[in-house]
Design goal:
The complex is a heterodimer of chains A (about 140) and B (about 350). Chain A is mainly alpha-helical and about 140 residues long. Chain A has 7 helices and 2 strands; from the N terminus they run ββααααααα. Chain A has a two-stranded antiparallel sheet with strand order 1-2. Chain B is of the alpha+beta class and about 350 residues long. In chain B, the strands form 3 sheets. In chain B, strands 5-10-6-7-8-9 form a 6-stranded antiparallel beta sheet, sandwiched between helices. A two-stranded antiparallel ribbon of chain B has the order 1-2. A two-stranded antiparallel ribbon of chain B has the order 3-4. Classes of the chains: A mainly alpha (about 140), B alpha+beta (about 350).
């Protein structure tokens, strides 16, 4: 890549355009130098697509919780950009157990201590966790 | 190769922050420069044998198969200091309290400390980058009150981070788990000799690219990933295909690779080695790797097209797969000849 080919295509999304990364490119004599780059279209598409996926999964999870198919744990897991493996590591449980806690029927039976563990990982209170998607709170 | 305007820092006048393309080779460079060793980022990356390729379909990171263009975290710093005979200390910790105390103790001696962190818990980074990615590296070079002074090599300037955030970032969960991993220079020899370190780094890189007899690593992984990409339209939903391909592009371009999945960085290293260290035979290899890097950029561009369309097009995936195969052939050929050139 030549110096003048280093793309400067900023992405105005979640502060991405606040950072200019260093790229390596060659000058007229074929000599390498570091150049700041605002971003590149291909990279921006990939970044944006990763966030689209996050937002889509979050919406789906919210709907599933509302329909009583999943427990709020599933929603907050997506909100914190986690997957089951990572969440299981954070709460110190097996992935199988975490998956079970995502079923509303199991979620209802969880002890206060377990709920607190999940809430702490998500950075919310246990009330926020248990009341999410609950019809009585009107959410 | 250096950046023109280093940021002079307040707490430790001797520590200077330079922006680099990649976090670990950047941290290594900044730490060594602190001790007066004249080293550039490409040099650190090359001696540290940072270049690699791997695709491990069953190792899912956030639901996508793991793809890497670099060696495993920690390896660059270790190899560079080892081949330059620099004494280091590296530690992991059982819990955040012990890790933060140990950090404070080392900082109190005026020693800048490198460490592995998650990017999710680094509030000073743009949110767009903040996923659960646990193989980031940064330098902490001072402490003021509850805040640590951070030199993050991918940023243009230094930053600050609250101790609670740093503790979280150092103890993030999920592979590769940092477990508070920190490292610093403990002793520097009077003279550093690059003449042996350079060929050693190249040999190691060639070895890792050519020799692992497993399908997931080195040049074999090109064939594996090409096969997988060819199969994506049949096996996956369009959404999954976009996600998987997008992840490859992000690993190649987004996470601070200097462009083309570290290929330009390594080409810059070969060039510097050719000029500074009298390995004239390396110059054509640098040029060739630059061209391969350009092919990688085209590959990323084609992949991004498919991601953007979000439609599984059999023909375009086939095309992408063939592009990757051709790149793989070229890299294999290059590293075979490079291996002979430094023997």
């Amino acid at each position: 890549m030549q110096l003048d080919e280093v793309p400067q295509e900023g992405l105005h999304y979640k502060d991405r355009d606040k950072l200019r990364k260093l790229m390596y490119a060659t000058d007229g004599q074929g000599h390498y130098t570091g150049v700041p780059s605002a971003g590149w279209e291909a990279e921006n598409i990939a970044t944006q697509s990763a966030w689209d996926e996050v937002n889509d999964s979050l919406e789906e999870a919210a709907l599933a919780v509302k329909n009583g198919e999943l427990s709020p744990i599933a929603y907050f897991m997506h909100k914190c950009l986690m997957d089951e493996t990572i969440l299981a590591r954070y709460v110190g449980k097996w992935r199988r157990t975490v998956r079970r806690h995502m079923k509303p029927s199991h979620f209802k039976k969880l002890s206060q201590a377990t709920l607190e563990k999940y809430a702490a990982v998500f950075g919310i209170s246990t009330e926020e966790l248990t009341s999410f998607g609950n019809a009585t709170t009107g959410k | 190769m250096n950046n023109p305007t280093p940021t002079q820092t307040q707490a430790l006048p001797a520590f200077r922050h330079y922006q680099h393309a990649h976090c670990e080779s950047g941290v290594t460079t900044n730490l060594l420069r602190f001790y007066g060793i004249d080293i550039s980022e490409p040099m650190a990356f090359g001696i540290g044998a940072g270049l690699f390729f791997g695709h491990i379909p069953f190792l899912k990171v956030n639901g996508t198969p793991g793809t890497t263009f670099r060696t495993w975290p920690g390896a660059i710093f270790k190899r560079v200091t080892c081949s330059l005979h620099i004494e280091i200390k590296a530690q992991r910790f059982p819990n955040p309290d012990a890790a933060m105390q140990a950090l404070d103790a080392v900082l109190a001696q005026g020693i800048p400390v490198g460490m592995q962190t998650s990017v999710y818990y680094l509030p000073y980074l743009p949110e767009a980058f903040r996923f659960h990615f646990n193989a980031h590296n940064l330098v902490v070079y001072g402490k003021e009150g509850d805040e640590y002074l951070v030199s993050d090599p991918v940023l243009e300037t230094t930053s600050r981070i609250h101790s609670s955030d740093l503790a979280k970032a150092r103890f993030a969960k999920g592979a590769p788990e940092p477990k508070g991993f920190m490292y610093y220079v403990a002793g520097v020899p009077e003279q550093t000799d690059f003449s042996k370190a350079i060929p050693a780094g190249i040999r190691q890189t060639c070895f890792m690219m050519l020799s692992p007899p497993l399908p997931w690593f080195g040049c074999n992984a090109f064939r594996l990933l090409a096969k997988k990409i060819r199969q994506y339209p049949q096996k996956l939903s369009p959404r999954k295909t976009a996600l998987y391909l997008g992840n490859i592009v992000r690993m190649q371009e987004e996470i601070g690779t200097g462009g083309a999945g570290f290929r330009y960085l390594f080409a810059a290293f070969l060039q510097e080695a050719a000029e500074r260290q009298n390995h004239a035979a390396l110059e054509p290899f640098s040029k060739e790797l630059t061209e391969i890097g350009d092919a990688w950029r085209n590959f990323a561009y084609s992949a991004a097209r498919i991601v953007k369309a979000r439609s599984t097009d059999l023909v375009s995936c086939q095309d992408l797969s063939e592009q990757l195969l051709r790149i793989g052939e070229r890299e294999k050929d290059l590293f075979k000849r490079l291996k002979k050139a430094v023997r």
